[in-house]
Design a protein that fits this description.
CATH architecture: 4-Layer Sandwich
Structural class: alpha+beta
Largest sheet: 4 strands, antiparallel
Radius of gyration: 18 Å
Number of strands: 6
Shape: globular
CATH topology: Glutamine Phosphoribosylpyrophosphate, subunit 1, domain 1
CATH superfamily: Aminohydrolase, N-terminal nucleophile (Ntn) domain
Helix content: 10-25%
Strand order of the largest sheet: 1-4-2-3
CATH class: Alpha Beta
Length: 145
Amino acid sequence: MDLFTTPFDDDKLHEECGVFGIYGHDEAAALAALGLHALQHRGQEAAGIVSHDGRHFHSHKAMGKVGDSFSSEEVINSLKGSAAVGHNRYATTGGTVIRNVQPIFADLANGGLAVAHNGNLTNAATLRKQLVSKGAYSSRPWTRR
């Protein structure tokens, strides 16, 4: 340890996205929205919530603050399920576009997966090449259906 440092030398804002998850509550999406609101200081560019009702994923993502996107009863009611994960975006990489708003989710042959992360995948290109070579998904660019 350096003799000229204090425990407070690193006491500064660390800008990173906000992530919130909840499981086992009938109003998971509403609680996730409240959690994201409390974490709004962690990212104000965009917000998203993915919920799961035991069979299907439900998603809502929007640019802007949580209160602007998740205060509508219609939006919250569309996010059915007792599990939800939410994300506030603080962009450190990638453009300011809806495509980059998390959480991301996928319906897979044996179930599905929803993920929100805080940080950057610095080896994303390498991981993609490995997944394509193993047949995990196509090498074609992502397209919207």
